Amino acid sequence: MRRTVFNEDHEAFRDTIRDFIEAEVAPVYEEWEDAGHPPRDFYLKLGELGVFGIQVPEEYGGAGETSFKYQAVVSEECARAGVGFGGYGVHVNLVLPYLLKYGSQEQKKRWLPPFTSGEMMTAIAMTEPGTGSDLAGMQTTARLDGDHYVLNGAKTFITGGVLADRVLVVARTSPATPENRRAGLSILAVDTRSDGYAVGRKLEKIGLRSSDTAELSFTDVRVPVEDLLGEEGRGFEYLTHNLAEERLGIATSSYASAAAAVEFARKYVQERTVFGKTVSSFQNTKFVLAECATEVEAARSLVDRCVEALDAGELTPADAAVCKLFCTEVQARVVDKCLQLHGGYGYILEYPIARLYADARVTRIYGGTSEVLKTIIAKDIQV
Q1: Measured between alpha carbons, how far is 290 from 306 in angstroms, rounded to an integer?
Q2: What is the pLDDT of residue 132?
Q3: Which residues on adjacent β-strands are paired with residue 148?
Q4: Which of 17, 53, 150, 239 is deepest in the core (most CB within 10 A)?
Q5: What single-letter DSSP state applies at residue 234?
Q6: Residue 121: closest CA among 182, 211, 35
Q7: Rg for the chain (alpha carbons), in Å?
Q8: d(Cα 89, Cα 97) in Å, to the nearest integer?
Q9: How far apart are CA 306 and CA 308, in angstroms?
Q10: Running DSSP on this structure, what letter comes out for residue 211?
């Protein structure tokens, strides 16, 4: 079906990203996966291309666009090529909305120009060992001492944590109350060069191997009060503000992954022969790909509607939950079926379908597990 969500500017941007991936990413992507992240100067190249600054206001060196559609294009083109941009997604889709919404003018002047150029890469640290999705149960603390906060604690599963230059750390600045376990949380933008800040293990994951994921620890890290993001004690409120966009970002990449899987499988079965016939000539192959293509079309339609809603300021948390739940489940089914059509070669990492399969599993976990999303949706429909 014809898509109407993108205009000529978006398609011109798509051509730019596609050419960039072909020249700068695809030839060396296996090296990135072996290393566990792209080389640091890759982010400077993304900065030069203008990718980081699309939604950054012009006064700070960006393009001043407000639409999410350019980020959707990047997700689709990465999936199409079977590659990733390392910590790009967290930098742009997770951290930037916090800086734009809650950063002071002074903070924006300090942080957004290097954010846009790629000189300052960012990450966000919420999850702690033993707490998982229960953010209200976090134990990391930040005690005010004069004109600094003294930060102590640990975080885990921090995407981009190895190469980040500044990390938004969620910490408890005052005790929770019996009435509200979520009270007392604040967000500090921590300089990773600070004394007492340490990157622990680079975690070895099943998939997304070109994206670094780390453990972080803080031992009496002194954070200037001017690096508090927004107001003290409102951290949990701030975190929930960006959940809809975060979940739409995951849904978009999940749909794009499913679409790419169908295309990889379609090309493979047309070339592969079994019993003297191409695999594509068997009725089972045709039916499986038809089923997959139908699911992908449904996911694409839902994503496009939600992207339009986000740009219009109308995407609700429940809408985003529906989109992420549906698209990640479609991704799981479609990628699995397309791997099966590859036979034994689908299990070999040199084939992009194998990477898609490994990468797909986490999408039903991060950004809100499928079980959490179902709870949100059930509440919205008053069940």
Answers
A1: 25
A2: 65
A3: 145, 224
A4: 53
A5: B
A6: 211
A7: 21
A8: 12
A9: 5
A10: S
CA distances from 252 to 7, 222, 329 (A): 18, 38, 12
Q: Cβ–Cβ contacts within 10 Å for residue 277, how many?
A: 10
C-alpha distances (whole Å) from 286 to each of 236, 266, 329, 376 are 49, 9, 22, 37
Residues of the chain with pLDDT under 70: 132-134, 136
**Matching fold, domains 8-120 and 237-381:** no
Q: Which tokens is 170 given?
A: 């969620």
Residue spans of the domains in the chain: they are 8-120, 123-232, 237-381
115 contacts: CB under 8 Å, gap ≥ 6: 52, 53, 56, 91, 95, 96, 99, 122
Answer for the pair 346, 354: CB distance below 8 angstroms, yes or no: yes
Q: DSSP letters of 134-189?
A: -GGG---EEEEETTEEEEEEEEEEEETTTT-SEEEEEEESS---SS-TTTTEEEEE
Q: What CA–CA distance (Å, rounded) separates 96 from 102?
A: 10
Which residue carries 């849904």 as its tokens? 251
CA separation (Å) from 23 to 12, 52, 71, 81, 355? Answer: 17, 19, 20, 12, 20
pLDDT of residue 137: 76
Question: Distance of CA 102 to CAs 55, 93, 178, 235, 350, Å?
Answer: 15, 15, 27, 10, 43
Decide if domain 8-120 falls under CATH 1.10.540.10.
Answer: yes
Nearest to 322 by CA among 211, 244, 218, 241: 244
With a CB cutoff of 8 Å and minimum separation 6, the contacts of 209 are 33, 36, 358
Residue 96: partners with Cβ closer than 8 Å, 6 or more residues away: 55, 56, 115
Q: Are strands 141-145 and 148-159 parallel, antiparallel or unpaired?
A: antiparallel
What's the CATH code, domain 123-232?
2.40.110.10
pLDDT score, position 133: 63
* 246 a catalytic residue: yes
At the topology level of CATH, where does 237-381 sit?
Butyryl-CoA Dehydrogenase, subunit A; domain 3 (1.20.140)
Q: Which residues pair with 159 in a beta bridge?
A: 213
Among residues 76, 215, 246, 295, the one annotated as catalytic is 246
Angle at 79 between CA 20 and CA 26, to 5 degrees: 40
How many residues are recorded in the chain? 383
